[in-house]
Amino acid sequence: VVFANGESVRYTNLVPALPLPETIAAIRDAPPEVRRAAGNLLFTSIYVLNAGIDGPIPPWSLLRIPDAELGFYRVSFPSQYSANCAPHGQSAVVGEISHHPTRYPLSYAEAREQFRAGLERLGVLRRGQRTVFDSIRNIRYGHVLYNHRTQASIQLILEYLRRHSIFPCGKYGLWKDMLIPQSILTGMEVAREITGRS
């Protein structure tokens, strides 16, 4: 394994939790068919938008939004969980908007505009209510997607990696939709496999 600073180390077993396409991209001599398989793995990216709002908001905690016209698919209200999540007299709101750098491009400015417009349509923001703080973070690998090539592509990649004593784990390492506890368990399963414990 060669690190960014040029240092290299030998490994007996390697356990990456990187997204599977990134693991393959990091292997200089990965075969063409493995690289093609990694290219078959689809995903959506997520903008996570945070807003500090001057004044009160509706007494909601978490909403899942099945309306594409609102822009975000989930919005949560941290200041409803704890008063410590926002200064006195202000409120905190977090929204998540799906996008993809090539299939569904969305700029930071467009995401911010969608977020504010959606909050207004929901009635979270009143006309003229000020936003005193906002930030946006882009999560490149948000959700894994499946199509008719996904399963065979994952199998080919994992078999190749295992032949080189590389044992991915986690949601993105295995390219499998799962919750956090399940993701943690995959790391434990890899550890048992490597150590030969049942």
Shape: elongated
Q: Mean of the pLDDT scores?
A: 93
Number of strands: 5
- Name the helix and strand elements from N-terminus to C-terminus, one letter apiece: HHEEEHEHEHHH
Neighbour order of strands in the largest sheet: 2-3-4-1-5
Supply the helix-strand structural class: alpha+beta
Tell me the helix content.
25-40%
Number of contiguous helices: 7
Largest sheet data: 5 strands, antiparallel
Strand content: 15-25%
Distance between the termini: 29 Å
Low-pLDDT segments: none
Rg, alpha carbons: 21 Å
Structure report:
With 198 residues, this protein is an alpha+beta fold. The protein has 7 helices and 5 strands; from the N terminus they run ααβββαβαβααα. α2 (32-39) packs across α5. The longest helix has 16 residues, at 180-195. The chain starts with 19 loop residues before the first helix and ends with a helix. The mean pLDDT is 93.
Give the tags:
198 residues; alpha+beta; five-stranded antiparallel beta sheet; 5 strands; elongated
Brief write-up:
The chain has 198 residues and is α+β, with helices and mostly antiparallel strands. The protein is 34% helix and 22% strand.
Question: Which SSEs are present, and which pair or pack?
Answer:
Layout: H1 20-25, H2 32-39, E1 42-54, E2 62-64, E3 74-76, H3 78-81, E4 90-99, H4 108-122, E5 131-145, H5 150-163, H6 170-173, H7 180-195
Antiparallel strand pairs: 1-4, 1-5, 2-3, 3-4
